[in-house]
Write a structure and sequence with these properties.
The chain is of the alpha+beta class. Helices cover about 25% and strands about 25% of the residues. It has eight helices and 14 strands. Strands 2-14-13-4-3 form a five-stranded mixed beta sheet. A hairpin with a 5-residue loop joins strand 10 and strand 11. The protein is globular, with a radius of gyration of 21 Å. It starts with 10 loop residues before the first helix and ends in a 6-residue tail after the last strand.
């Protein structure tokens, strides 16, 4: 499956994590041991490191609407100043929040209250405002197939999902291990430093993201560790790749003005 809803607030971390949910045994099952011990499931083979066959992507175009560019600049300024009052004026009254498959926005509360909860704008860590700034910087949008007139960002690239499935099978990986570059020709460096030697460049194809448990990454994750199609391990700035199926901020045009229409993703129980 190539469209999990991954966190764009921490999109690199999300691209590294494969979530597993295991249902607990019932009390009855625990009280009544089986007559025969079940066969142990075969161990999953470890992911394969090395060159891989590129799966080409087609990047979505930026929306051709000067008013949307103006709106994004306004939104960026609001995010920079953490101006909740100004943000409230940019949110549509019927704001929706869909973490999984249904709208959980509390219709008894204001739109800004629902947006704040969805993006964690009221948190002390500031990640919600940083995420809002990142959305403001994103010029690509895709039409929401469920809601007429609503566009969501960032847009997904177009690629052959069958080829992607085959790639995941061959490399023993999951969709969450893969991302896509935001542009062609991103330089891959030998170390997580801007002046490190260039070992490869990313083309317009799905790129493998690797776990990075280095001390530097634990403090400030400014680079992502990747494996290129040629089998080279290196680092790229975190803002140059995005996950497949990441969270999206959605917009609609209300007359001549754009508004934040909703949010796809988030943690409903935070």
């Amino acid at each position: 499956m190539w469209h999990p809803r991954l966190s764009s607030t921490h999109f690199v971390a999300a691209a590294l994590v494969i979530a597993g949910v295991f249902a607990p045994m019932s009390a009855i099952a625990q009280a009544q041991p089986p007559a025969q011990a079940p066969a142990q499931a075969p161990a999953q083979p470890p992911p394969v490191l090395g060159p891989y066959k590129p799966v080409a992507i087609k990047l979505p175009p930026a929306i051709n609407d000067p008013s949307f560019d103006t709106f994004r600049k306004q939104l960026a300024e609001v995010a920079k100043n953490k101006d909740r009052a100004a943000l409230a004026r940019l949110v549509a009254g019927n704001f929706f929040w869909v973490p999984e498959d249904k709208d959980i926005a509390d219709k008894s509360k204001s739109a800004i209250d629902n947006l704040s909860k969805a993006l964690s704008l009221d948190g002390t860590d500031g990640f919600g405002w940083e995420a809002l700034a990142a959305y403001a910087a994103e010029g690509t949008v895709m039409a929401d197939p469920q809601r007429k007139g609503v566009f969501c960002a960032p847009a997904e690239p177009i690629f052959d999902e069958r080829a992607a499935d085959e790639l995941a099978n061959v490399t023993h990986t999951d969709a969450a291990d893969w991302a896509f570059p935001v542009r062609d020709g991103i330089e891959v460096r030998a170390a997580a430093k801007q002046d490190a030697a260039v070992v490869d460049t990313l083309g317009l194809y799905l790129v493998r993201v690797l776990p990075d448990d280095s001390p530097a990454n634990a403090v400030l994750a400014t680079f992502a560790k990747v494996l290129t199609a040629a089998g080279k391990v290196g680092y790229v700035p975190v803002d140059t790749i995005l996950p497949i199926g990441g969270e999206q901020l959605c917009y609609l045009k209300d007359g001549s003005a754009w508004k934040i229409a909703g949010f796809l993703g988030g943690e409903p129980n935070h």
